[in-house]
Design brief:
This protein is of the alpha+beta class. It is built from 10 helices and 10 strands. Among the domains are: about 290 residues, Outer membrane efflux proteins (OEP) (Up-down Bundle), CATH 1.20.1600; about 35 residues, no CATH class. A 4-stranded antiparallel beta sheet has the order 2-5-7-10, covered by helices on one side. The protein has a two-stranded parallel sheet with strand order 1-6.
């Protein structure tokens, strides 16, 4: 998934932001680029990966554990010969190796519950990653709609200024002929200048909205970006789903709710794992060891002879020497490999660890785990409460917006007719410029409000779709 987003980002960045090159951006382009570049999304992905590693390690803890050691040393002076286990006074070279293994048989189900705890934590981390992607997707959609809204505002401001410019040029000619009052000419020129200022403000708002969008995408801002409107314009009407239905869908699909519930499940398993430390633990163990000593010798028989012992016996008044049989041996060092092969020993058994008293660490660990469980439940309950409140507020807002838009449409139609009549009367000199400008400003204001209401409706609808898990 990470590689996919990165590839998308590179493709979009290469095509869209090359110098001197214009590109039509779609909403999907913006979302894909933002997901690929966003720091928090990447950070949540790494956190999910870390939780996955913890989960795998929890399962791997069921496997046997083994270790081996090897040593080689040189000692001078009085030391213990590992071959004979006796004291010697000479230079001694010794070596040893051992290998051991153990496998848990029972430990109060700590391993099993820890596996479940980490499994739920891993799933929760993935949901939090998805939650951040969903939130970023919504932010990009809202920023994209804001860009389109400011584009419409520029179009409206341009049209308004064009109408006023045409009327100002006409009235200027009439004024030069002395057929109208000078105030009519100055009023129209002042109106045109004000609408030029409005156009500048609209263009600045557009640039600011594009900048906000590129900041979410984390790409450089350029002035030549264009934005597609395909599939974004919708009919404005009363939202057809009730808050209860929206809330029910949100509980089923919203990643934030799922993540909170998985954190609760993980904390429940953590309590069970902590309680497991109260029980005895049983394990099987086994091992093998061997050693080497440079003092170890192999004695080979060479010959035997009778030698005087220095003692005598008397026989018939004569001292006869006592003889003893003495064997002669040749000592040769036993080589390294032979000693390692000959000195191997094995052992295995069962061990049981029974907890008696450990400064109340287990009891306090259980209390801490229970406290974490209560905290996670509190967070989950609060998320549900805020979610319901936000849905209720969003539902009220979208219906109010749709009603306001329909009312503005009626007002716009009425003001359009008023302006048409005022234009005819002004062109024929029946009314002066203030009356004409009042009619024009009324129409301009309601048209601007129509744009605001239209995009506000779409923004609020996207928020409700986000709650229902319908953004993707």
């Amino acid at each position: 998934m990470k590689r996919k987003y990165l590839l998308m980002a590179l493709m979009v960045a290469a095509a869209l932001f090359a110098k001197g090159q214009s590109k039509m951006l779609t909403l999907k382009d913006c979302i894909d680029t933002a997901l690929a570049n966003n720091f928090t999304v990447k950070q949540r992905e790494l956190q999910a990966n870390a939780a996955g590693i913890d989960y795998k390690q929890a399962k791997d803890n069921l496997l046997p554990s083994s270790q081996s050691t090897y040593n080689y040393s040189i000692n001078n002076g009085r030391t213990i010969d590992p071959f004979t286990n006796g004291y010697i006074t000479q230079q001694l070279k010794s070596s040893g190796a051992d290998v051991s293994a153990s496998i848990p048989i029972f430990n109060g189900f700590q391993l099993r519950n820890t596996i479940r705890q980490n499994e739920q934590a891993f799933a929760g981390a993935r949901m939090e990653w998805q939650q951040r992607k969903d939130e970023l997707t919504l932010q990009v959609i809202l920023a994209y709609l804001q860009v389109l809204s400011t584009q419409d505002a520029i179009t409206l401001a341009t049209q308004q200024a064009a109408v006023t410019k045409q009327q100002a040029e006409r009235i200027d000619i009439v004024g030069q002929e002395g057929a109208t009052a000078p105030s009519n000419v100055s009023d129209l020129k002042g109106q045109y200048a004000g609408e030029q200022i409005n156009l500048i403000s609209a263009e600045n708002n557009y640039q600011s909205s594009v900048l906000s969008l590129t900041m979410l995408m984390q790409v450089p801002y350029t002035e030549d970006l264009q934005f597609s409107r395909t599939g974004l314009l919708e009919e404005i009407k009363t939202f057809d789903k009730m808050p209860e239905e929206i809330y029910s869908l949100a509980l089923q699909k919203l990643a934030a709710v799922k993540a909170a519930d998985l954190r609760v499940s993980s904390s429940v398993m953590a309590v069970k794992a902590a309680k497991g430390a109260y029980y005895p633990s049983v394990s099987l163990f086994g091992g093998a060891s061997t050693n080497y000593s440079s003092a170890a010798m192999l004695n080979s028989f060479v010959s035997s002879a009778d030698v005087q012992t220095g003692a005598y016996v008397q026989y018939n008044g004569t001292n006869l020497p006592v003889l003893a049989r003495q064997d002669t041996y040749k000592s040769t060092p036993i080589n390294y490999g032979s000693q390692f092969n000959n000195n191997i020993s094995y052992g295995f058994g069962v061990s049981m660890r029974i907890p008696l008293f450990n400064a109340l660490r287990v009891r306090n660990a259980v209390k801490m785990a229970k406290n974490d469980e209560l905290s996670s439940r509190l967070v989950a309950d609060n998320i549900r409460l805020q979610l319901r409140q936000n849905i209720d507020q969003a539902y009220i807002n979208i219906n109010a917006t749709s009603k306001r838009y329909l009312a503005l449409q009626e007002q716009a139609a009425a003001y359009a007719e008023s302006f048409r009549i005022a234009t005819l009367r002004f062109d024929n000199g029946v009314i002066n410029s203030p009356e004409y400008l009042i009619a024009k400003n009324n129409l301009d204001r309601v048209n601007g409000n129509l744009i605001i209401a239209k995009y506000e409706y779409m923004l609020r609808k996207k928020i409700l779709e986000f709650y229902m898990g319908m953004l993707n």
